[in-house]
User: Fold these one by one.
Assistant:
Number 1:
Amino acid sequence: MPSQHQSNTPQPTPSHVHDYSQVADEELVVLTDDSTNTEREKSAEKAHQREETEQREREREAERKAKHEEAKRRKAEEERKKAAEEEAERQRQRASAERAQARRDEAAQRLTGAVYDVNTAQKVPGASVVVTMTRRAPCTRCIASLTAGQCEPGQGKGKEKATETEEADDKREVGGEDKPATPLKGPSGAGVHTRWAEWERERQLQAMERQAEAHETAALAFERMAEAAERMAVAAERTADEWALYCAWAEWAEMRRREDAREARMAELERSSGGWKRPQSEAEDKNEEVDKGAEGDNEEEEDIRGEKEGGEEQEGGGEQAMEE
């Protein structure tokens, strides 16, 4: 009977509805909508955590790649910079070697053309030996030791025959004593031609430097003079324009002054002479009277003559007043 057999399954309530479709045995745990929702939430949370973990992994991988690329870029930039510095250093060394070679070539050329010998007819200023210029090759040690050290006597092809001799010309010098030998004046003894050539080269280089400085100074002075001349030309043009404007204004002012003075004199003459008219109006009146004078009476002619004489007198007085 149903009343005798009681089930352990909880009875549904109006506020809590259960789904028993998956229940296989009464002893098992009853699955409800709440438990199903909890499992779904757990699954969704696990999936979300898995996605977050994957996203973090992807971000870390991207950051790792970016750092690797940045390190590679920095390394490549450092290598390029190092290569550029090495190339610049090689260029500097090459330029220095070229300059040194040019100096050596110039020194060799000068030494080839300027080798001094003793016991000949020309005396070096300030030295107690008599030397002259000959054309022969210099010693190899002279070429190699121009910048550091001096030549030793008796070495190379063009070895120096340097011997100090006292001659009669020394007695005729002022003071009667030999001057001390200095490197700048070509000392007697070993290595005379080397030191003398080096001093000559230094002197010429200094002269060339002074000449270059003088040229630069002259060029700068010419540039400044050109700028000053240009400014003066602009100022002269502006002054000419201003002077032309002033002359035009002065001419206009003088013309206005003369017109005002003439009008003032005319007004003064009209006030002083009463019915005096200007010469042009008188000529017009006279022409009108001649046209109207058909009768030709003597009285009218006399009147006309009187008017003419009076007009001439008035005109003469007006001219005299204008001249005054």
Number 2:
Amino acid sequence: MIEKIRDQKHLSSLTQSHTDFMMILFYTDSSEKSKQTLEVLDSFHRKHPDVALFKVNASKVRDIHPSYGIDSVPTLLTLRKGQPAEYILGIQSEDDYSRLLSGTKHVAKKEGKGQRLKVLVYTSDSCPWCGRAKSYLRK
């Protein structure tokens, strides 16, 4: 079972005791995607019980997520040496979460012979992924 973080003080004590690596899921009870993510992470945690994995109900514990800039759920935050390392939005697979343990990232390989490709991206104002995609593409 994934341990719940009760408040900022509880989080501070956890970050002091788990200095190398920890994962924190920000979720709400009203979000279906949060419930699905919790199911995937419960299964992940059963396979990796030694991983420091915690959860924060953002609708009940309101003082933690703003300090990390989290504005949508579900969001998984990884901390390395007490500092934010990765923000993973939405539902992911167990394999994706396992990849976080090794610190390896999924990187697309450049295959193509110098040809430029055009990509059409459809976005929505209500989708948290879309806002981040738009800001990335503007760079």
Number 3:
Amino acid sequence: MECLSGFKTEWEKFSAEVDRHGKQLATAQKSFDSLAGTRSNQLQRQLNRIDELQVARESDDDEETGAELSEWPPLRGVASA
């Protein structure tokens, strides 16, 4: 009986640790998903705004001076590189 009691005690400790690590993994996964999804989407929005401003500025420059487009490449797609 002592052997069975010892096994039960160790099983409960093991199960508690597995549960604790499972929760930590879930927290890490949620944090990673936020970084990979939400944060990269927000960065891409900012890059799109910069690109729109650049295009608008180039259009204004062309209209005012007849100059060629800026040598700066558009930023669209930089985040995926």
